[in-house]
Structures are given as structure tokens and as C-alpha cells.
Amino acid sequence: MKNADMLFSLAPELARDCIELADWPLCKVLLMNDSQYPWFILVPRQAGIREIIDLSEELQIVFLQESAKLSKLIQQVFTPDKLNVAALGNMVPQLHIHHIARFKSDPAWPAPVWGKLPAIPYTDEQIKQLKAHF
Questions:
Q1: Under CATH, to which class is 12-131 assigned?
Q2: CA R_g for the chain
Q3: N or C: which end of the chain has fewer CB within 10 A?
């Protein structure tokens, strides 16, 4: 694995914009701090990883399993009209996968959520309720 000797740390942008919900076997589960959209992010706790193919084959499988687990959880809890799952990394090169529940009634529909509207942070009570699912 590339840069195996480096210690994992969360990209500063993700640390700034997200709330940590859980640590699964491979990934850190984050919540984007914008209550307009149920927007979750998986980040493998592996140093120096930029692309899924940078993970070993074994960890790629674990990553896919955790992504599927998060996707199913989002569908069960939020019943979205569409579930967007994407790895872009243009602004934050650390490997992270967005899982966004989209609704025809959400304020950005059908456009992408990035930069559409100013974020509305979650309340402490909303965060507590979401953490109960993890």
C-alpha cells in the first residue's frame, strides 16, 4: 500500500465541514454539516489513499461493503427519491465517497448540491438522532 508508513489523518476540509458519526472497520463515517440534505461521506482510514484502486483488493471489497451498508441505511432511514453515490476528489484529494439522499422536494433538486445554497448546520438534537443509527 502506498505511504503505509504515514499515519491516517482526516483531510482538513472534511474535518471542518463534517461531523464524525462512527468508525466502521475500514471507514470513518461522516455527516456533511448541512441539514438541507442527508449527506454522508465514507473515508477509509488509510494514509495517502487518493483512489479506490490505491486500496488493496481486500480493502476495496471492504470499502464496497461499507458503501453498500451506508446506502441501505440511508434508504431505510430517509427513503429518498434518489441516492447519489460519488467519488470526485477534485477539491479534496483524500479518498472519500459521498452518499447523498436526494428528494424531489430538496432545495437543489435536480441540480447537484455542491455550492447551491449556504449550508444550514444541524442542531445538537438532530446530530444525536442521526448518531443513533450508527
A1: alpha beta
A2: 15
A3: N
